[in-house]
Specification:
With 635 residues, this protein is an alpha/beta fold. Helices cover 47% and strands 8% of the residues. Strand 13 (439-441) and strand 14 (445-448) form a beta hairpin.
């Protein structure tokens, strides 16, 4: 452990801008430019920017914005990163002239962009809270001060103490719940304040002032209830369980699947432990495998999953042992070595050198016994000619590997013949040990196989290796479930994003593969299944769905394609009309969305000739023809 030592000239009072990790210096540059009136700042940041960042980001954006979400209203459910991006994350009130002045002209705002997370309270909770606050101050000043201290400590106090960096991975409003709870006490006190006014000023008596006070103050929580219920109601949601089931059902019997984050791990454990779904599959989390106790847990039977075979002894990875292994070899650290020989070396005392641990090469290979591969059904007999003699792994990049990489390598090398091994398709590609070309998509899992295929790098992790079209088709059409989002209109928030994107890309790549193989019936079925599983009522159409429409056209399902083209065209026209209504300053927040919508219009108009339907072509051109890029460029 060490501490940074700074020059005296670089030290400033109450530093707020010492965030140096994860690209945050670049984010600070954006904030400096914003606070400098849009001009590129010069020199190093000083006290002016330090305090400006604290006020505009930490106080106004990361506290006051959240405060107003709770007591004025919320624009949408998207995470807001920057105040200058007016498309997401802001507070709104429901009073049009106020909201439009702060954000943009909402006259043409499209229906398909409105979500259940757009909640407006017309400032009522805020107004009643302020009434209660002032009433408390004038009637019980000491009690008020005690409550004020709690309000400030659990709100701005946390903000100042935590020194939040720019761009948190998720909204942090939950950290400030104590402050919002405290303010809600003053909303409660507003009942007494209104009652006193009616009693003392209006000279009302009996139950009338009580009833009026309660009715008035209750308008705030009631409007919040009606506004918030639809985006907080989870009674019809089964997505976490169903999507977890889809991950597990993508695996062969007795498989091992590496998962990466919270959303592709905890739901799987729930599905296994509580629902009893596919308890034969071993879920191995790539974040937890960095620690010794978790690696040791893999050696035990869990539910119906047999112990995982590992070659590294428990005592040799305990504590800090082998947290890092540096590449050191007299013959050069790029000499390919047999993984089993290298594992034996790593587990020995020979790997210890000057209190560090070494590995003799950054290039290892897993030797492949073709007879075992075929006998154990790792690949089908039809793939005999494609089986490689070895799987090559090259640890490029840093001059070392870490304990988690070592453990992943150990699991793969020692179990590849006995158990199907998968990486969840939501994993970080950096965790795949460079094995993308030795993978096969079978659903939401990428299976490690001793067959080398060329990956499609343009598709990110979704393009890894090859596609087993028949297996994916069977999994999607007969085993996958859709969380009830295919049946009922629900609020689908961003927490489902990675899993939804993964299922979409798996279905798209598989349908495209089936179409290339002239299996048009299956390709068309898969495209139709996508639109059934992700209906427009819950998943507004955008440019990303057009490839499914193209597959429908290839499969000769023109009537189905036209149905979805019309929905996409109507959605696109509403969006583009809205973008056209914005002034230049407001349009900049929607520039990317405008580009996606123009792409939708272009795709639709370019594909109309394939449908051989002049009436439909004329109908769609009348709707979005004005946005034809060819005409715009020509004029």
């Amino acid at each position: 452990m060490f501490d940074y030592v700074y020059k005296s000239s670089d030290k400033i009072f109450f530093p707020r801008i010492g965030h140096t990790e994860s690209g945050r210096p670049a984010l600070h540059k954006q904030w400096r430019k914003y606070l400098n009136g849009g001009k590129e700042p010069r020199g190093k940041p000083g006290q002016k920017y330090n305090l400006g960042f604290m006020w505009h980001y930490q106080v106004k954006w990361m506290y006051f914005r959240y405060f107003m979400w709770n007591f004025a209203g919320r624009q949408n459910g998207k995470q807001g990163y920057f105040p200058w991006d007016k498309s997401k994350g802001h507070w709104v009130s429901g009073i049009k002239f106020i909201d439009d002045a702060r954000l943009y002209n909402s006259d043409e705002f499209p229906e398909n962009l409105k979500t259940q997370a757009h909640n407006t309270y017309y400032f009522l909770p805020l107004i009643f809270g302020l009434i209660g606050l002032f009433f408390h101050f004038f009637r019980r000043d000491k009690e008020f001060l005690a409550l004020l201290v709690m309000f400030l400590t659990t709100g701005l106090g946390i903000i100042l103490y935590s020194n939040q960096p720019p761009n948190e991975p998720r909204e942090r409003d939950y950290v400030l719940a104590g402050s919002f709870f405290t303010f809600s006490m003053w909303i409660g006190l507003s009942v007494l304040a209104v009652y006193k006014v009616l009693q003392d000023k209006a000279k009302m008596s009996g139950v009338a002032p009580v009833g009026i006070a309660i009715a008035l103050a209750m308008s705030a929580p009631l409007i919040m209830l009606f506004q918030n219920f639809d985006d907080h109601d989870r009674s019809a949601h089964y997505a976490s369980r169903d999507y977890a089931s889809n991950f597990l059902e993508s695996c062969e019997e007795n498989a091992i699947i590496f998962t990466y984050g919270d959303n592709d791990t905890y739901p799987l454990w729930y599905a296994q432990e509580v629902e009893g779904i596919r308890r034969d599959v071993r879920v191995v989390n790539l974040s937890l495998i960095t620690v010794d106790w978790y690696i040791d847990k893999l050696r035990s039977k869990v539910n119906d999953s047999a112990p995982i075979k590992l070659s590294l002894p428990s005592e040799e990875i305990r504590g800090r042992k082998r947290n890092q292994l540096f590449f050191v070899d007299p013959d050069g650290p790029n000499r390919p070595v047999n993984v089993f020989d290298e594992m034996a070396f790593i587990a020995s005392k020979k790997a210890e050198y000057n209190n560090q641990y070494i590995m003799r090469s950054r290039r290892v290979f897993i030797p492949i016994d073709k007879n075992k591969v075929l006998a154990n059904g790792v690949v089908p007999q039809s793939d005999t000619a494609n089986i490689v003699d070895r799987i090559d792994i090259n640890f490029g990049g840093p001059n070392y590997i870490t304990k988690d990489q070592l453990a992943i390598l150990d699991v793969i090398a020692n179990n590849i013949y006995d158990r199907p091994i998968y990486f969840a398709i939501t994993s970080n590609p950096d965790k795949l040990l460079g094995l993308q070309d030795y993978m096969e998509m079978e659903g939401l899992g990428l299976r490690v196989i001793p067959v080398k295929s060329k990956s499609d790098r343009s598709l990110y992790i979704y393009g890894s290796g090859r596609v087993d079209g028949e297996t994916v088709y069977d999994n999607v059409m007969t085993k996958w479930k859709w969380g009830n989002f295919d049946q009922e209109e629900c609020y689908v928030n961003s927490s489902y994003g990675a899993e939804l994107q993964a299922m979409k890309m798996v279905m798209l790549r598989t349908a495209a593969t089936l179409a290339e193989d002239q299996k048009l019936e299956q390709a068309g079925n898969l495209a139709e299944k996508y639109f059934e599983a992700f209906p427009a009522m819950n998943f507004p159409y955008d440019s990303s769905i057009y490839p499914f429409i193209e597959i429908l056209i290839k499969a000769g399902r023109n009537e189905v394609a036209k149905k979805h083209i019309k929905i996409l065209a109507e959605t696109t026209e509403q969006k583009l009309r809205f973008y056209d209504s914005l002034d230049d300053d407001d349009f900049s927040s929607f520039r990317d969305d405008f580009g996606y919508s123009m792409r939708s219009a272009s795709d639709i108009l370019s594909g109309l000739d394939q449908l051989n339907d002049d009436n439909f072509k004329s109908e769609i051109r009348d709707l979005i023809g004005q946005y034809d890029i060819k005409n715009i460029q020509r004029n």
